[in-house]
């Protein structure tokens, strides 16, 4: 099996793209803390309401300009909904599903996470710009999936 | 023009060729493929129109039933039946006919697939399985839906074993020879189908007792992971099928020679070995999989890009050599020498060109952080309408123009060729609009698998509407393309003038080096595949084996 010189160069470029992708993705994930949401904690989906912290969902100030939102997703709503935080605050979302698989996406941000029953999913975001952000479920969850939305108001 | 000229068949081809019994089998498969394309295409149009806010769907067949059926018909039925029909014809042609036993396997598989499709389609139509083709638990469809899936899987396996038996028999009778290249592709595809479907089979076998109420709960993450070990493999099976026509048939159609037998086989082997763990890139924002494993799996997904780079090089090398053989001079003159008026070339050519942005988009979105931007948005739908809807579909259409008349002992007339070119152009315009709009609006955050909604007149959601109109415009072009294609298929099957059509099989260059023996060692290839799967899956699976189970839900 013999490769043409031009093909060798072409394939080295290919390997270069793959290697560069790996380096950038790895650097962003592990050096800059931008790894994708990967909550490893589990929870019994039949006992969500009795399990801390989901027995008391809501917005909690946990530091200066730092909030934790404990959120339950269910067909077809978010609890709590219509969240409001000041500009510049960092929000840590701790989420689980009471029923089927849902998606948690905030348009205009990089918040995008699957929320599956049985797991506790976590994602954080700093809201630097004021505005009303659209929160929506981006995994088909049933007949009312297109209605499953709320907002985060940053002011 | 070249198409209507009676081409003398080479010595090789005279000895081989599909017999009427094999032809009937493949034609039957293709009939189902294009019925699926027709129905699935219309359902796609309805969705596009709904999504743009232009059409309300009836409650007795709502958006999510439409979407589930569209997905199942095009993602499962169109592709699977086409792949089997095509490779059974290819094996029959290159291996001197199917063994009678194998033909029976082909018919048995067909029967099982039809039963499976009827079960699945009926349960969806009756509103008992609006669960999408991904059927993620704990949404629970009626047991008949999952039982239908079992018929589909068993059908696919029987078709695969038919291929293995035929290939093994040929190898016994042709000691020391390489399997014909097209049959080599077929072997790779069906090895991948069997091994890639093991995960989803285990999933379905867990879902059936759960749907019957025999088990109370289901492990959601485990099910998702098993599903995607198959889902992603399936995508690459279509791709591998498409490139088999690029490597084997296209060189002959353009009057060129094979790129390199050895390198082609290496591409097949790499795609077969590296494929299955790619499924993890569908789960980059899932819980239950560690950041470390998600990072490692970026490599598994990107590695499939390597053989695709080899393919890109090979294709343009074949084009250039063919053009120069026809007297092209200078740097790019060869490009003009390509048979642009021949739909058998134009359709797969556009398919290849589409794979440049499609493949680049795929590489981008498999990087973890970029994936988080587009995951489950319409971007993804745009991506697979570019890969499946253009690269795979247009290649399959390109095959249709010669394979169906070859099987039906008819000829592609200049008129139908011209109609084919119009079809190809309409299809390309439609997909450009639709996939383009989906990519852009997805980047802004518009979600996939969601019927028309403004989320209570939310300003952000309203700003997506103009893009969604373009989506509907693209869909309208595409339905014209679907109808034209089905008309062409009916013509080629039943009405085109009688005659002999060539099965284009590229020939090697004169000064070709011999292909290494190790390319025939399928045992080693399968062991390597299993090792890669084990490396990719064992550790992540141990993390999700003991997730607390979910009871069933019916949310539609």
DSSP, total strands of chain A: 10
Number of helices of chain B: 18
Largest interface: A-B, 70 and 78 residues
- What's the number of structural domains of chain A? 2
β-strand number of chain B: 0
What is the CATH architecture descriptor of the largest domain in chain A?
Sandwich
Specify the overall morphology of chain B. globular
Termini distance of chain A? 64 Å
Mean pLDDT of chain A: 94
Give the class-level CATH name of the largest domain in chain A. Mainly Beta
Largest sheet of chain A: 5 strands, mixed
The CATH topology of the largest domain in chain A is Immunoglobulin-like
Keywords (chain A): Copper, Membrane, Metal-binding, Transmembrane, Transmembrane helix
Protein name (chain A): Cytochrome aa3 subunit 2
Transmembrane segments (chain A): 9-30
InterPro entries (chain A): Ba3_CcO_II_C (IPR034214), CcO_II-like_C (IPR002429), Copper_CuA (IPR001505), Cupredoxin (IPR008972), NosZ/Cyto_c_oxidase_sub2 (IPR051403)
Please explain how this structure is put together.
The complex is a heterodimer of chains A (155) and B (556). Chain A is an alpha+beta fold and 155 residues long. Chain A has two domains: 1-35; 45-154, Immunoglobulin-like (Sandwich). Chain A has one helix at residues 5-31; strands at residues 58-63, 66-74, 77-79, 83-85, 89-97, 102-106, 112-115, 121-127, 131-136, 149-154. In chain A, strand 2 and strand 3 form a beta hairpin. The radius of gyration of chain A is 20 Å and the shape is elongated. Helix content of chain B is 70%, strand content 0%. The relative contact order of chain B is 0.13. The model of chain B is unreliable at 1-16 (pLDDT under 50). The chains are: A alpha+beta (155), B mainly alpha (556). At the A-B interface, helix 1, strand 7 and strand 9 of A face helix 3, helix 8, helix 9, helix 10 and helix 11 of B.
List the helices and strands and how they pair.
The complex is a heterodimer of chains A (155) and B (556).
Chain A: H1 5-31, E1 58-63, E2 66-74, E3 77-79, E4 83-85, E5 89-97, E6 102-106, E7 112-115, E8 121-127, E9 131-136, E10 149-154
Parallel strand pairs in A: 2-5, 4-10
Antiparallel strand pairs in A: 1-2, 2-3, 5-8, 6-7, 6-9, 9-10
Chain B: H1 11-15, H2 20-51, H3 63-94, H4 100-125, H5 143-173, H6 181-196, H7 198-211, H8 220-253, H9 261-274, H10 291-303, H11 305-325, H12 343-366, H13 368-374, H14 378-408, H15 414-444, H16 459-462, H17 465-495, H18 522-544
Helix pairs in contact in B: 2-3, 2-4, 2-17, 3-4, 3-5, 3-14, 4-5, 5-6, 5-7, 6-8, 6-9, 7-8, 8-11, 8-12, 8-14, 9-11, 9-18, 11-12, 12-14, 12-15, 14-15, 14-17, 15-17
């Amino acid at each position: 099996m013999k490769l043409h010189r031009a093909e060798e160069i072409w394939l080295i470029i290919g390997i270069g793209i793959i290697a560069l992708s790996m380096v950038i993705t790895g650097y962003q994930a592990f050096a800059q803390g931008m790894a994708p949401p990967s909550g490893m904690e589990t929870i019994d989906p039949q006992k969500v309401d009795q399990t801390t912290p989901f027995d008391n969902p809501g917005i909690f100030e946990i530091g200066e300009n730092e909030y934790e939102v404990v959120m339950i997703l269910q067909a077809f709503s978010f609890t709590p909904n219509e969240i409001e935080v000041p500009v510049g605050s960092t929000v840590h979302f701790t989420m689980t599903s009471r029923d089927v698989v849902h998606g948690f996406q905030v348009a205009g941000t990089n918040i995008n996470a699957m929320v599956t029953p049985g797991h506790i999913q976590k994602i954080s975001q700093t809201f630097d710009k004021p505005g009303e952000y659209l929160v929506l479920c981006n995994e088909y969850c049933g007949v009312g999936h297109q209605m499953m939305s709320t907002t985060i108001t940053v002011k | 023009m070249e198409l209507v000229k009676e081409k003398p068949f080479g010595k090789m081809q005279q000895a081989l060729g599909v017999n009427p019994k094999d032809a009937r089998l493949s034609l039957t498969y293709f009939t189902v493929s294009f019925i699926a394309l027709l129905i699935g295409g219309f359902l796609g149009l309805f969705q596009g129109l709904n999504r743009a806010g232009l059409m309300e769907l009836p409650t007795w067949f709502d958006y999510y039933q439409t979407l589930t059926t569209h997905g199942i018909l095009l993602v499962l039925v169109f592709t699977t039946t086409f792949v089997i029909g095509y490779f059974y014809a290819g094996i029959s042609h290159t291996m001197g006919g199917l063994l009678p036993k194998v033909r029976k396997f082909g018919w048995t598989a067909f029967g099982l697939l039809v039963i499976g499709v009827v079960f699945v389609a009926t349960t969806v139509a009756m509103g008992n399985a609006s669960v999408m083709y991904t059927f993620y638990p704990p949404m629970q469809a009626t047991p008949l839906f999952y039982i239908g899936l079992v018929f589909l899987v068993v059908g696919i396996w029987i078709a695969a074993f038919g291929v293995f038996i035929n290939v093994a028999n040929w190898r016994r009778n042709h000691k020391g020879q390489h399997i014909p290249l097209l049959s080599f592709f077929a072997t790779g595809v069906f090895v991948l189908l069997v091994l890639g479907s093991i995960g989803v089979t285990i999933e379905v076998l867990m879902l059936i007792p759960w749907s019957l109420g025999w088990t109370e709960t289901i492990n959601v993450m485990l099910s998702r992971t098993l599903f995607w070990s198959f889902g992603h493999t399936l995508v690459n099976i279509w791709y591998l099928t498409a490139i088999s026509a690029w490597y084997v048939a296209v060189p002959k159609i353009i009057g060129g020679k094979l790129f390199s037998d050895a390198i082609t086989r290496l591409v097949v082997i790499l795609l077969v070995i590296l494929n299955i763990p790619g499924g993890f890139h569908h789960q980059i924002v899932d819980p239950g999989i560690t950041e470390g494993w998600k990072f490692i799996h970026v490599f598994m997904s990107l590695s499939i890009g390597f053989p695709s780079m080899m393919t890109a090089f090979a294709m343009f090398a074949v084009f250039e050599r063919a053009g120069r053989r026809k007297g092209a001079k200078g740097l790019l003159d060869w490009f003009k020498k390509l048979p642009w008026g021949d739909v058998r070339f134009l359709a797969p050519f556009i398919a290849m060109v589409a794979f440049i942005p499609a493949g680049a988009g795929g590489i981008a979105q498999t990087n973890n952080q970029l994936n988080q931007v587009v995951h489950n948005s319409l971007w993804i739908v745009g991506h697979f309408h570019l890969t499946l809807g253009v690269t795979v579909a247009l290649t399959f259409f390109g095959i249709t123009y010669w394979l169906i008349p070859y099987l039906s002992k008819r000829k592609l007339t200049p008129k139908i060729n011209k109609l084919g070119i119009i079809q190809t152009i309409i299809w390309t315009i439609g997909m450009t609009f639709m996939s383009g709009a989906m990519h852009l609006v997805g980047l802004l955050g518009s979600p996939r698998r969601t019927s028309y909604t403004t989320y209570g007149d939310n300003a952000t959601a309203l700003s997506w509407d103009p893009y969604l109109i373009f989506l509907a415009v693209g869909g309208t072009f595409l339905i014209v393309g679907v109808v034209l294609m089905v008309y062409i298929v009916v013509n080629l099957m039943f009405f085109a003038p009688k005659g002999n059509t060539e099965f284009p099989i590229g020939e090697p260059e004169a000064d070709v080096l011999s292909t290494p023996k190790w390319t025939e060692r399928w045992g080693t290839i399968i062991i390597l595949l299993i090792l890669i799967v084990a490396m990719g899956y064992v550790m992540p699976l141990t993390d999700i084996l003991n997730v607390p189970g979910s009871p069933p839900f019916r949310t539609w």
